[in-house]
Prior knowledge:
The protein is α/β, with parallel strands linked by helices and 347 residues long. The chain is built from 13 helices and ten strands.
Amino acid sequence: xxxxxxxxxxxxxxxxxxxxxxxxxxxxxxxxxxxxxxxxxxxxxxxxxxxxxxxxxxxxxxxxxxxxxxxxxxxxxxxxxxxxxxxxxxxxxxxxxxxxxxxxxxxxxxxxxxxxxxxxxxxxxxxxxxxxxxxxxxxxxxxxxxxxxxxxxxxxxxxxxxxxxxxxxxxxxxxxxxxxxxxxxxxxxxxxxxxxxxxxxxxxxxxxxxxxxxxxxxxxxxxxxxxxxxxxxxxxxxxxxxxxxxxxxxxxxxxxxxxxxxxxxxxxxxxxxxxxxxxxxxxxxxxxxxxxxxxxxxxxxxxxxxxxxxxxxxxxxxxxxxxxxxxxxxxxxxxxxxxxxxxxxxx
Length: 347
C-alpha cells in the first residue's frame, strides 16, 4: 500500500465491513472487460478514467484509509492492478516500477499476463507492468490527459453503431473499422458508408485516411469530400512489409492533420502500424505500444503482429544510436544482416 496516501490494494475472498477508519471497495463487478475470444484485459481508457475519478473522490472526501480489494479470480486481479496502478502513475505521479513493486509486495503470487484477442495459443505475454509503462509514457508525451479527456465521447464513438473509432494519439492517429459501400445492418451488425464519417473527421481535423484491407468502398468518396486517401494493403492477420511500414510512417509524418487508419475491424493491421509510429517517434517499446493501443482500443495487435513489433524494437535502438553516430554508413556496415533489415525501416 501507499501509506502516505492512505491507499491500499489487497486480494480477499470476502468483502470486509467498513470501519470508522477504513473504507473498502472493489472494481471487479463494476468494470468488466468485453472479450473477443480468450482475451480478458486490460480494461479500456473510459474504465480507467471512471475508476480514477471515483477513487480520487473517495480519497478527497474523507480521512479514512481506502482499501481497494479484489477477489481470487486471477484475471480480475490483473485488471484491478492496472486500474489502481494507473491511478498511482497518473495522480500520485509515481514511477511504474515503484508502483508495481508496491502492488506485488503484499501478494502471495504475481499477476497473470494479458493475451491477444485470438483463438489458440498466445505467443506474447503482456504484463501489468507493461501496461503501467504504456500509461506512463502516454502521459509523458501528452496523449493521456484526464483533465481534457471526454469520457462520454470515448464511450459514444467506440460503439459500432456510432463508427467504432478510438483515438490512439488524440488529434493525430485515429483507429476505426472499415467503411462499406452503403450504410446498412448486416446480421445485426451496423456497417457505415464513408459519408457517415465526414462530419466527425472534419470536426476533429482528420486530413488523411489510410486503408489497409481489400476495397469495401470507393476511395473517391473520401477524396471528393476533400480527404487524402492512401491504400497500403496487406493480408488480414499478417505483418506488414518494410515498404508498407515506411510508406505508412511517411503518410503520418507528412499529413497536415490527423490520420484515420482502418483495416477490416481496425484492430490487427491498424494497431500494428500505429505501434510502429509510437515506437519510432516516441520510443515506446513493443510491449508499451501494444499496452497503450489496447487500453485505447481493446483487441488490437494480434498473433504474429505482436512478435513483429518486438523484432522492430531493436531497430528503434539502432535508429537512436545512428542519430548520435557521425558515420552512419560505417555504423550500418557493422550491423548484422538481420539488424540492417530492421534499421532501414526507420531511416
